[in-house]
């Protein structure tokens, strides 16, 4: 009986020691259900908590009032794989902030105040599999290279934002993409939407609700229509429409050609003039020689 009691006592001591260590490393305002998880959800935080264990793997910060993430925040947390910042007050993410976490698999930035996703926001976080950016009511701009380097990303959520257009190159740079959510945005079915529309029709299997769940407004009267009511023929006129960039290229090319033509004419005229003067000089010398 005594050996059993000693064995049980040893287990209780080890368990108590582990719990004491866990509680000691856990931020005072947060919960730590296991040694590698810190849960600070719904704590009314206005900044990131201090004294977060360096070996943390899951950090839950949803439903707070956090306005920014320090650019060097993730430098020390190389083991972090799960970061939940949903429903905070984030207005922007400094480029490079998230690229320092090489093992990050899940990132939730939904329900914040983000206005744009610039190039370099995620660096080349090749381990990232799921990225949530939905429900940002002011998010109206996603750079074409915003997701460059996210070669393992399988799920991308961009639903219910303020996107009226999106360059299709941003999606084509995601070779592992399996699911993308784009519904609930104020898409405008103009010529800028043509390439995205074509991509959506070809990749409708990646949309949870298919193209039926996406609507856009017609540029003429603002009427909302489902993408199922449109086809590539709806954008036929766009193929002959010159964009501002095209016009600038044409104007610049015309100016360049004109400048080259003027310089060429000036060079030829100068050459002819010099040749004439040389001819007259040669003729004069010959006449003096005959005399």
UniProtKB/TrEMBL annotation:
It is a single-pass membrane protein. The keyword Transmembrane applies. GO terms for cellular component: plasma membrane. Residues 1-23 form the signal peptide. Residues 25-58 form the LRRNT domain. Residues 185-239 form the LRRCT domain. Its main location: membrane. The chain crosses the membrane at residues 247-269. Keywords: Cell membrane, Disulfide bond, Ion channel, Ion transport, Leucine-rich repeat, Membrane, Repeat, Signal, Transmembrane, Transmembrane helix, Transport. It holds the Pfam family LRR_8. One of its GO terms (biological process) is potassium ion transmembrane transport. The keyword tRNA-binding does not apply. It is found in: Cell membrane. Interacts with KCNMA1. This is Leucine rich repeat containing 38b. It comes from Oryzias latipes (Japanese rice fish). The lineage of its organism: Eukaryota, Metazoa, Chordata, Craniata, Vertebrata.
């Amino acid at each position: 009986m005594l050996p059993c009691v000693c064995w049980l006592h040893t287990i209780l001591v080890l368990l108590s020691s582990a719990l004491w260590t866990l509680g000691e490393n856990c931020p005072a305002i947060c919960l730590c259900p296991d040694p590698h998880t810190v849960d600070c959800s719904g704590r009314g935080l206005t900044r990131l908590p201090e004294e977060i264990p360096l070996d943390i793997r899951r950090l839950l910060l949803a439903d707070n009032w956090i306005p920014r993430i320090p650019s060097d925040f993730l430098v020390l947390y190389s083991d972090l794989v799960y970061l939940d910042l949903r429903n905070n007050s984030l207005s922007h993410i400094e480029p490079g902030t998230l690229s320092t976490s090489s093992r990050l698999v899940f990132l939730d930035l939904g329900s914040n105040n983000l206005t744009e996703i610039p190039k370099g926001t995620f660096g080349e976080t090749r381990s990232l599999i799921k990225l949530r950016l939905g429900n940002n009511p002011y998010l109206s701009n996603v750079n074409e290279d915003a997701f460059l380097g996210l070669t393992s990303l399988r799920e991308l959520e961009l639903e219910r934002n303020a996107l009226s257009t999106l360059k299709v190159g941003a999606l084509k740079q995601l070779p592992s993409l399996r699911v993308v959510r784009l519904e609930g945005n104020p898409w405008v079915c103009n010529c800028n939407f043509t390439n995205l529309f074509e991509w959506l029709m070809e990749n409708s299997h990646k949309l949870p609700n298919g193209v039926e769940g996406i609507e856009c407004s017609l540029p003429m009267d603002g009427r909302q229509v489902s993408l199922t009511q449109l086809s590539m023929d709806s954008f036929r006129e766009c193929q002959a429409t010159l964009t501002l960039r095209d016009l600038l290229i044409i104007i610049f090319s015309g100016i360049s050609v004109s400048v080259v033509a003027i310089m060429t004419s000036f060079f030829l005229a100068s050459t002819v003039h010099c040749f004439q003067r040389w001819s007259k000089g040669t003729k004069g010398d010959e006449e003096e020689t005959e005399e």
